[in-house]
Amino acid sequence: MTESDMSAARLGYAHARELAARDAAHRAHVERLLLLCADTLDDFDRLLAGGPARDAEAYRGSLARIAERFETALRGEGLEPIGVPGERADPATHHVVGVRPSAPAAEDEVLEVVQRGYGYAGRVLRGARVVVAVPGDGHGGGNEQGMRQEGERE
């Protein structure tokens, strides 16, 4: 075996070790996320076993705490929620599903978040589905709530 062959073999071995380490890190990350989801499922199982029979308000509070813990854990893993009422809709991160005349709100201001969007590592995983403001006083056409859906004519 020549020196060139030995060098190529060492390089190939180093590359294979690097790929194996990257694969192990990815697997560990996925396992951590799955355990996080399993913990949340356990919380739901405990809550559902008791049921809302006695105190509906306490039941709702327990659901809210589970959702908050789950969201906090996912944020800790890098999940970034997208979509807040009051912000300006951005085509890169928001999908407008309806418009509503609103005198006090700025044009394209998010009035309602129908479904939150999410990002991860600077990429949009899912855009937020939002209802935005258009100029007007809210006393004109549209449907009974003064809102037009995508594709609806004035």
TrEMBL record:
Q: Can you tell which superkingdom this protein's organism belongs to?
A: Bacteria
Keyword Chaperone assigned: yes
* Coiled-coil annotated residue ranges, if any: none
Gene3D superfamilies linked: Head domain of nucleotide exchange factor GrpE
Q: Name one Pfam family in it.
A: GrpE
Keywords on record: Chaperone
Show the segment(s) annotated as Disordered: 135-154
Designated name of the protein: Nucleotide exchange factor GrpE
